[in-house]
Sequence to fold (119 residues):
Amino acid sequence: MIQNIVLPWPPTKSSLNGSQGDFRGKAEAGRQYKRTCALECMAQKVRPIDAKRVSVRVIFCPPAAAPRAFDWDNMAARCKRGFDAVADAIGVDDKHWWPVTLEKGEPVKGGAVVIEVTP
Fold:
């Protein structure tokens, strides 16, 4: 059974390429993003999965008004805390997410990160 989980777009401050010199602000942005994603998982009634490994498809749907492009490795890094929140919710550590497919989706208002988990 596939679980679809929709997370909010990650904060810019969590980018590996930005926020240099503001480590505390970057760390707080990451902590807040993880809390927000954990609340989203609860709101979407994400349940633990009885599996040792899962395959995961991640679709990055940028904000509709996004002024610039993004690269997949930076987006994956920006979402790391969100992935941790999902891993906690499904009960499968993200080191056991194989294979992982990263895709770019259509822009949506506010942006979103869609995670499809298949046991």
Observations:
- The first helix runs from residue 23 to 43.
- Residues 3-118 form a domain with the 60s Ribosomal Protein L30; Chain: A; fold (CATH 3.30.1330.70).
- DSSP finds three helices and four strands in the chain.
